[in-house]
Protein: Small ribosomal subunit protein mS41
Organism: Lithohypha guttulata
Amino acid sequence: MSTTKSASPLLRTLLRPSSGPTSRYTCAPCLHQQHQQQQRTIHKTKDASIPKPTPFVPDVKTFLTLIGRGLSAQASKISSWNKLFTLSSEELKELGVEPARTRRYLLRWRQKFRNGEYGVGGDFKFVKDGAAQLRVVELPSNTTQGSEGSPEYVSVTRTPGKTKLVLNVPEDFDPLNIQKLLQPGQSTADLKKPKDYSLKRGHIIAGPYATPVAGGGSSTVRVQVKEGMWEDPLGKKVFGGERRRAQTLHKLGVAEHRKAIGTAR
């Protein structure tokens, strides 16, 4: 009897509902799966943003031409700028964009463009029919804040009180009308040289795909949209380790030599 009475409070304690919150155990694989789902949701939301076309990249055809890998031939399969930045890999596959590595390459460049990571000419503001003009312009030397050789400005002073800058200008640019290059609220101190271009010897514009303009010497150049200007180079084939690579290259060389001898005969 005493045992039953003494056990009753203990039994009531064990059967009493807990006042605290109910804890739930989640296994590690489930947590990993939840994390992946959250990451996919975040990436999907981020990827939904559609950047605006730029003067140098105004449409789908130009974008695909710049990034290369033969994607310009696929331009007819992507109907609009919005489609270019919203189609998934599966949807691109259904449209016939093959192989898979090409789709991955396109998606990678698409994300870089969203982030403002452009190739050559991506920061040009004055472009006509896929061509931009760069010119050496003299400005008052007190308009620039950077020093000579700084990454933002190219400063080579020849005329007293003047500084020479490489600028992207319209084709009908008048050197006496610098204000045409400025946005509302800007001053000449806000003018910067285009990325990847520099001034050599005070009058030569150096940079990729720069072609001198007739009559302008090397102080005026044109940059035209071309196939693969932004293309990421493919890796080189490696024939295994050092020993195997030497053996394979030797065999290839012997085969080429025999082929050359056979052709000569």
About this structure: Helices lie at 2-15, 28-47, 60-67, 81-84, 89-95, 100-114, 242-264.
